[in-house]
């Protein structure tokens, strides 16, 4: 009697692809940066995996509270139930958006709590770090370089007409 071998399901392939996107060096820098901002060591240094160190949202809430005092109220410092973790993470996401992180840069709560998309969690934290540049009162440390500033171009009517006359020659 032969046994059938089935190929791994799509969810396994997706999980492998997500894990491949992870950047351990960046994750380490992110945790170090969070630790410097909040003034305490994040458990990664004690052997806790990156996603586990952040999953309950406590360090993320503390980060936003340091960056923008009063932005996160009632952090559950020892969440024992998943819904409390979800609440902490949701508080972080709201505070991050108010701090200047575009909605498109925010991860979904399940991305962290259920470890569905850890690279997106890292991308959101990097977006928070980028948003620090929007706040002149923030003196560092910085995780990212300063974002480029817009360099608007202003053309008068004569320049626009000359450009239009070139037509396809400009291509």
Number of separate domains:
1
Mean pLDDT: 84
Q: Can you tell me the CATH topology?
A: Actin-binding Protein, T-fimbrin, domain 1
What is the CA-based Rg, rounded? 22 Å
| The level-1 CATH class | Mainly Alpha
The span between the termini is 68 Å
Shape descriptor: elongated
Tally of DSSP helical segments: 8
Catalogue the unreliable spans: 1-7
CATH superfamily: Calponin-like domain
Biggest sheet details: none
Estimated share of beta-strand residues: under 5%
CATH architecture, by name, is Orthogonal Bundle
Let me know the number of strands: 0
**H/E element sequence:** HHHHHHHH
Helix-residue proportion: 40-55%
- By secondary-structure content and strand pairing, the structural class works out as mainly alpha
Explain the layout of strands and helices.
Blueprint: H1 10-21, H2 24-38, H3 50-54, H4 58-67, H5 82-99, H6 109-113, H7 118-131, H8 157-166
Helix pairs in contact: 2-4, 4-5
Short summary of the structure?
This is Calponin-homology (CH) domain-containing protein. This protein is mostly helical. Helices cover 52% and strands 0% of the residues.
